[in-house]
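Exercise 7.
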Amino acid sequence: MARARTGRDGRRKSPLWARLLVWVGAVLLVLSGGTMAAGAALLHRYDSSVHRADLIDGSSGHEVIDGAFDYLLLGSDKRPTDTTGDLGRSDTIMIAHVTADHRHAYLISIPRDLWVPIDDCGQGAGCTAKINAAYVFGGPKLTARTVEQLTGVSLDGMVIVSFQGFDRVVDALGGIRLCVDERSRSIHTGRLFTVGCHHFTGAEALDYVRQREDLPDGDYGRQRHQQQLIKAAAGEAERQGLSSNPAKLDRVIRAVGDDLTVDTNGTPLPDLVFSLHNISGSDITMLRLPEIDGYSPDGQAIQQLDDTGRSLFTAIREDDLATWAAAHPTLVNKNAG
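Solution. The predicted structure, written as tokens, is:
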């Protein structure tokens, strides 16, 4: 069983799963270390509570995670238990990259309006469209294939979380403290978000991170706020010592399970757990692509990929994101913490 790490201030660090539980909301792959500390029963509870599905094409996985690996993380407006046949929408697309030494993680947001080739836009015909259209045309498999073709990164797994999952995790933590960096008003509820640090319920936090229309930097602002939510919830989980509170840990697992669909590509969960137990909240870096505005041939406002963005994808493939981040400090979302 893994031991909790000790920080520079001498305080005991709770393991990764408990600290970064909302990565289950947005980043399930790091939903690991706390269950090791909390016991096999909770690991089994987590393993049996989430929905499993074949979400990505490719190999059947491997028995032990060795080296760097990458997960695709999607936010969806559809719950796994929805049987209507509607694929729903996915406006949150991120790549989570874990370094080869399994001591650092990077979260890279991909703009929903990025203009990309999609190989099947209906009736087997390809097209060029906004990347979030891939989910509408072909669900998670086509989205994963589109991201792989765009980035050259071979995905090792995928997590889909419904928007309700964010809400439930935050409420299970008793709410979180978020520092609003730009005044905005929700187009969904009319709620006004004023600059400063405030306590948010799950519904309020979800409302906040879904906004983009009233932000000066639009979808890039929304990406930053989503990353801010992840870090804030991670900090709250750590502050509460979630791994040493089995009752609360169990409550959070049960709260989020119905909202998650997971494909570990054949990797046994205990191997995934062990590979992540050395990562702490301070070992996570949030990155974004450059904001390159443009218009599609039919007049849509889009985002475009430039050489800097392509170099980011190269850095993922080469497991050299530390060098890339040092060379592009303005593309590190420091406000996400």
